[in-house]
Automatic annotation (TrEMBL):
The chain crosses the membrane at residues 61-79, 91-110, 207-232. It holds the Pfam family DHHC. The DHHC domain is required for palmitoyltransferase activity. InterPro entries: Palmitoyltrfase_DHHC, PFA4/ZDH16/20/ERF2-like. GO terms for cellular component: membrane. This is Palmitoyltransferase. The keyword Membrane applies. GO terms for molecular function: protein-cysteine S-palmitoyltransferase activity. It catalyses: L-cysteinyl-[protein] + hexadecanoyl-CoA = S-hexadecanoyl-L-cysteinyl-[protein] + CoA.
């Protein structure tokens, strides 16, 4: 799992956002603890296999996706492949099988992996950030409404505005967004996909993309060879010519 507190922070691209407690210099000297961040801040995700598998809370549509793919492919392998293998080429079930396992593999990788959840701030970090925000906003009197919480940072010479997430208590990096269904901020958030049963973000985008691509190939492949099967049968056993009318 990528969210371990004992794992050294590999890169701190957004150093302006990092508070002192998450400094990469401090982490290696800490005593190694076995509490993971997902155990402290699980959001609304479900975790299995000691945190190696994470999914959204509602996974009903994901099982429907699996059943749809397996039933369609199963019918193709059971009823079309034996005829096509003996009358055309045995490569058809072989290619179909490889495609099917690739599709299922990519679906499971996209569904079970961490989409790029940004760890929430610890109470210390949140309090520190609150103090910084209050100091930069100036004294607030009664009836004073604080401005929306944003922070500007310069990335590659471009000024980028970071928004504050009130749930996660962090300034979100650019293109990160809070998934309301999983209740977590996700880096490079694309969307929450109920078909896959997970958010699609930085860490599982490639698996999601390969899943969609290979599923398109599998669909076209099955459709093309089902049509071929029907046509071949039609030619092999042409329907009897009706007798001419008397
Ligand atoms: Zn958030
Ligand atoms: Zn989500």
């Amino acid at each position: 799992m990528h969210l371990g507190v004992d794992e050294p922070v590999r890169e701190c691209q957004y150093s302006q956002v990092c508070t002192r407690n998450s400094s990469p210099m401090e982490t290696p000297h800490k005593k190694r603890v076995h509490t993971r961040k997902w155990q402290v801040f699980p959001g609304r995700n479900k975790f299995y296999c000691d945190g190696r598998i994470m999914m959204a809370k509602q996974t009903g549509v994901f099982y429907l996706t699996m059943v749809l793919i397996m039933v369609t492919s199963g019918l193709f392998f059971a009823f079309d492949c034996p005829y096509l293998a003996s009358n055309l080429t045995p490569a058809i079930p072989a290619i179909g099988g490889v495609l099917f396992f690739f599709v299922m593999g990519m679906l499971l990788r996209a569904s079970f992996s961490d989409p790029g959840v940004l760890p929430r701030a610890t109470p210390d970090e949140a309090a520190d950030l609150e103090r910084q925000i209050d100091a930069s906003n100036g004294p607030s009197g009664p009836g004073y409404r604080p401005p929306p919480r944003t922070r500007e940072v310069v990335i590659n010479g471009q000024t980028v505005k970071l928004k504050y997430c009130f749930t996660c208590k962090i300034f979100r990096p650019p293109r990160a967004s809070h998934c309301s269904l999983c209740d977590n901020c996700v880096e490079r958030f694309d969307h929450h996909c109920p078909w896959v049963g997970n958010c699609v973000g930085r860490r599982n985008y490639r698996f999601f993309y390969l899943f969609i691509l290979s599923l398109s190939f599998l669909t076209v492949f099955i459709f093309a060879f089902v049509i071929t099967h029907v046509i071949l049968r039609e030619y092999a056993h042409p329907p009897p010519i009706p007798p001419p009318p008397q």
